[in-house]
Automatic annotation (TrEMBL):
<keyword id="KW-0833">Ubl conjugation pathway</keyword>
<dbReference type="GO" id="GO:0005524">
    <property type="term" value="F:ATP binding"/>
</dbReference>
<dbReference type="Pfam" id="PF00179">
    <property type="entry name" value="UQ_con"/>
</dbReference>
<dbReference type="InterPro" id="IPR023313">
    <property type="entry name" value="UBQ-conjugating_AS"/>
</dbReference>
<dbReference type="InterPro" id="IPR016135">
    <property type="entry name" value="UBQ-conjugating_enzyme/RWD"/>
</dbReference>
<keyword id="KW-0547">Nucleotide-binding</keyword>
<keyword id="KW-0067">ATP-binding</keyword>
<dbReference type="InterPro" id="IPR000608">
    <property type="entry name" value="UBC"/>
</dbReference>
<feature type="domain" description="UBC core">
    <location>
        <begin position="49"/>
        <end position="194"/>
    </location>
</feature>
<protein>
    <submittedName>
        <fullName>UBIQUITIN_CONJUGAT_2 domain-containing protein</fullName>
    </submittedName>
</protein>
<keyword id="KW-0808">Transferase</keyword>
<feature type="active site" description="Glycyl thioester intermediate">
    <location>
        <position position="133"/>
    </location>
</feature>
<dbReference type="GO" id="GO:0016740">
    <property type="term" value="F:transferase activity"/>
</dbReference>
<comment type="similarity">
    <text>Belongs to the ubiquitin-conjugating enzyme family.</text>
</comment>
């Protein structure tokens, strides 16, 4: 018997539609677990270090429950994750919903994922192409997790690093005209992420 289950994801924020997930999910209530030695398991088993680690990361992320952050692997590949970040209420990005992607290479976790914003954001460490300056390449360790990367992304809502900008004119404004920076960040948030 199959039944629908949509309670596993928050629907009020439009996350289901935003990341392209189906409106309903089916659950097979007659599912019988098989032994790990069956050929079905072997055929469907993750075959690389990267994919095994990413399946582990997905479980770890669901256990971590980061506020303001939702992450979903693509239905086509565990190597591409969609990220939905809600602008924290105590920041200039409040009430904004920002979409980003994590792209993992076959060398993950020995090399960092690529991070990119899909939503325009007024920030000196995120350029108009969505590239993000997090210092992942410089500071990456194979023990770091997806949750650590997402915490770094969330920290960008609270502060800019004007000493290592991708957008120098925003960095200059952040340092010299902070009130104007806040005004522009709020305008962009309202225009592009609401």
């Amino acid at each position: 018997m199959m039944d629908s289950n949509t309670n596993c994801l928050p629907s009020s924020s439009g996350i289901i539609q935003a990341v392209g997930l189906p409106q309903t999910f089916t659950v097979d209530t007659n599912f019988k677990p098989q032994s790990f030695t069956t050929s079905t398991y072997i055929i469907n088993a993750p075959t690389s270090i990267a994919s095994r680690r990413l399946f582990e990361e997905l479980y770890h992320f669901t256990e971590a429950s980061l506020p303001c952050c939702h992450a979903f692997p693509s239905s086509e590949s565990i190597f591409k994750w969609s990220i939905v970040l809600d602008g924290p209420t105590d920041t200039v990005y409040a009430n904004g919903t920002f979409f980003a992607e994590l792209l993992f290479g076959v060398n993950y976790p020995f090399s960092p994922p690529e991070v990119g914003f899909l939503t325009k954001i007024y920030h000196c460490n995120i350029n108009s192409q969505g590239q993000v300056c997090l210092g992942l390449t410089r500071n990456w360790k194979s023990t770091m997790r997806v949750v650590d990367v997402l915490k770094m992304l969330l920290s960008l809502f609270y502060t800019c690093n004007p000493h290592n900008p991708l957008v120098p004119h925003i960095a200059k404004q952040y340092v010299n005209q902070y009130e104007e920076f806040k005004k522009m960040a709020r305008i962009w948030t309202k225009r592009f992420s609401s």
